[in-house]
Amino acid sequence: MSAGNDNAENPMARPPLGLPVGSVRALVTILILAVVVVETMRNHELPALLNVTVLIAVAHYFNSRRYVRVSAETIERLERDGQIPAEKHPLYLPRYMMRVLILAAFGGVGYYMYTVHGVRTVSDVPEIMIAGASYLLGATTRVLFSRDSKPGQAPRRIRLWNDLNAMVVILIVVGISLVYFLNESEALPKDVRNYILAIVLYYFGSR
Questions:
Q1: Are 73 and 80 in contact (CB under 8 A)?
Q2: pLDDT for residue 10
Q3: How far is the C-alpha of 137 from the C-alpha of 142, rounded, in Å?
Q4: Which residues constitute the domain of residue 198?
Q5: Does residue 85 fall inside a structural domain?
Q6: How far is the C-alpha of 25 from the C-alpha of 20, rounded, in Å?
Q7: pLDDT tens string 163-180
Q8: Is the pTM for the entire model greater than 0.70?
């Protein structure tokens, strides 16, 4: 079997929109960077959430890795043979404990702001909370979807969902980029901008 026929032989391995792996993230990262560059050259103050978005996008892009799903027995054998380092949980905590603590922290702050401070609209939510919650939601979605498929396979509905996510994030990033390039960012309501950047961060978390 030739390497060039991998996707044809295994349609479940098809990345979003059938583009090379990482293409959507690369396009989104380039557009966001372009906005930051243009706004900086115009000496405009960048929204806090846009700053967070570009940092997460760049960090995510440089830290992306190709993951291969293998059985627990194979991992144990590779660890015994010294082929890969033995994995220990951070701070010797139980498995997934750090994820639980992070989710609990964001959830607890969100609940406190809702009940005590009466926060009801996106414009009242601290932008760092929007960024963190959006990225975590995407990461949680990725984990849930990966459990719904076997190694080397992905249900058709998941592939369609990935394509839809890719198309939506491309369209909205192109749209907001044009608004900034045309120097019309003042006409963009803060809530709309926050929703758009939240969707972008959700996408990076989900990939």
A1: no
A2: 44
A3: 9
A4: 19-65+96-206
A5: no
A6: 11
A7: 888 888 889 889 888 988
A8: no
Q: By three-state DSSP, how is residue 70 classified?
A: coil
Between CA 181 and CA 162 the distance in angstroms is 28
CA-to-CA separations, 93 to 1, 13, 100, in angstroms, rounded = 44, 34, 11
Tell me if 123 is assigned to some domain: yes
Give domain status of residue 88, yes or no.
Answer: no
Express each pLDDT in 113-146 by its tens digit. 888 888 877 777 777 788 888 888 887 877 776 6
How many residues does this entry show for the chain?
A: 207
Percentage above 90 pLDDT, the chain:
0
| Residue 12: predicted pLDDT | 45
Per the domain annotation, does 55 fall within a domain?
A: yes
Tell me how crowded residue 91 is: count the other CB atoms within 10 A of its CB: 7
Q: How many domains does the chain have?
A: 1
**Cβ contact 7:17 at 8 Å:** no
